[in-house]
Design goal:
The complex is a heterodimer of chains A (216) and B (199).
Chain A (H helix, E strand, L loop, with lengths): L17 H28 L2 H8 L3 H7 L3 H25 L3 H17 L2 H11 L3 H28 L9 H22 L3 H17 L8
Helix pairs in contact in A: 1-2, 1-4, 1-6, 4-5, 4-7, 5-9, 7-8, 8-9
Chain B lengths: L2 H25 L6 H8 L3 H7 L3 H23 L7 H16 L3 H12 L14 H16 L9 H15 L1 H6 L3 H17 L3
Classes of the chains: A mainly alpha (216), B mainly alpha (199).
Chain lengths: 216, 199
């Protein structure tokens, strides 16, 4: 049984009703069951019926929480994007400059390597429509680029990178490298050490070129 | 097979590829069905599957045919490129963008299909084009010879970065409606950083 949510006495927030809590618990059960099935069977392979069964409820109950499989999948992906970012941030916080970037990239790859089928499904869904691609950019790409920018800006401020460094340009290129390596992961089954080795060299070349002026 | 049969087969193939190219560009990869492609080509779906193993196979062939023509032109052009290593690379990518952006949806379909793993095997993943990679390597090797790039410059990594930047710039088409010029400008700046990193 989940622990009951108890707000601090002076939180000024009404505690959620029992009904709201029950709804949330149901939703979390469905998401957990769906996640396991998507990992096991891929997006196409998992059905709402199987998800409902694994969650111990009727398909009707699932449809009360989610309009369809796509919406359920989107929630899982959104959760993952947040967790992925948290992992990258935590790793980046331990170091500076190139080391911080490498640690962040490695943490990001490790996160997805642990649940590869979900990543594959997410990536293929992301390119299905322009709308989906834009959503992916917003949910996955932008926060990571912001994280990278923070590290690059700090390196510029501390003098580790030249004063001329175009932070936005360098950050975009670092993102490109980070994202492009996912293709190596998915197409060639590169492992974590292999991905990290690529990333290390890519980061090195980009940062070495960070002082390029626009006229170069 | 008789000469006539062979010619017919080739004609069917060409019609299917032309129809597919147009349909992918109009409605995108997912929306385009083999049935619709067949109808537009004026052949039966059976006829399509006699020449191609899947929709993904058709897309692969469409892209390969288009790129073949482009690469031939580039390979003729490459030995005559002048200027800095960065400028030579810029020329190559500017030409690519101008070419692909004549049919942006088709190109996005190609990139997307490269990610449809497990669903449609057999599509040449984007960026695998050996002739393009070779051309880029040769330009950079020339830069090393001319002393513009370090002898120990990491050309393998530079190539990965060039292709990554080239591919990801296309996402700007989707997220902000970028045109060929915007992509080229972005690539120019990225090439500047990469080459500077090898100098």
């Amino acid at each position: 049984m989940n622990a009951m949510f108890k707000p601090a006495p002076d939180a000024g927030v009404r505690p959620p009703t029992r009904r709201a809590l029950a709804k949330r618990e149901t939703r979390e059960k469905i998401v957990a069951a769906a996640r396991a099935l998507f990992i096991e069977r891929g997006y196409e392979g998992a059905t709402i019926r199987e998800i409902a069964s694994a969650a111990g409820m009727s398909t009707g109950a699932v449809f009360a929480s989610f309009a369809d499989k796509a919406e359920l999948f989107a929630e899982i992906v959104a959760n993952d994007d947040r967790d992925h970012l948290v992992a990258m941030r935590a790793a980046a916080a331990e170091a500076k400059g190139a080391d911080a970037l490498l640690a962040a990239f490695r943490a990001g790859y490790a996160f997805h390597l642990a649940q590869l089928p979900l990543l594959q499904a997410a990536v293929s869904v992301a390119w299905l429509t322009e709308e989906a691609a834009r959503e992916r950019a917003r949910s996955f790409q932008r926060p990571v680029v912001e994280l990278i920018s923070g590290v690059v800006q700090a390196a510029k401020d501390s003098g580790e990178l030249p004063a001329r460094t175009d932070v936005s340009l360098v950050s975009d290129m670092l993102w490109d490298a980070y994202a492009a390596n996912y293709r190596a992961l998915l197409n060639r089954g590169l492992d974590l050490d292999g991905l990290t080795a690529f990333a290390k060299r890519q980061i090195a070349v980009i940062l070495a070129g960070a002082g390029a002026s626009a006229a170069a | 097979m008789s000469g006539v049969r062979q010619a017919q087969k080739a004609a069917t193939r060409a019609r299917v590829l032309a129809a597919a190219r147009d349909l992918f560009d109009e409605v995108g990869y997912d929306e385009a069905t083999v049935r619709a492609i067949a109808a537009r080509a004026g052949v039966s779906t059976g006829g399509v599957f006699a020449a191609f193993s899947s929709k993904a196979d058709i897309l692969s062939q469409v892209m390969a045919d288009r790129v073949d023509g482009l690469l031939e032109e580039l390979e003729r052009l490459a030995p005559h490129l002048r200027g800095s290593t960065a400028d030579r690379l810029r020329s190559i990518f500017a030409i690519h963008y101008a070419f692909e952006m004549r049919r942006p949806r088709l190109f996005l379909a190609h990139v997307a299909a490269a990610y449809h793993l497990g669903l449609e095997p057999g599509v040449t993943p984007y960026g695998r084009n050996r002739r393009l990679q070779q051309m880029l390597r040769e330009i950079m090797a020339g830069g090393v010879e001319r002393g513009e790039l370090r002898k120990d410059a990491d050309l393998d990594t530079a190539l990965q970065l060039l292709l990554a930047a080239y591919a990801w710039n296309y996402s700007r088409v989707v997220t902000s409606g970028a045109d060929s010029q915007v992509l080229t400008d972005a690539m120019d700046a990225q090439i500047g950083v990469i080459v500077h990193g090898l100098a």
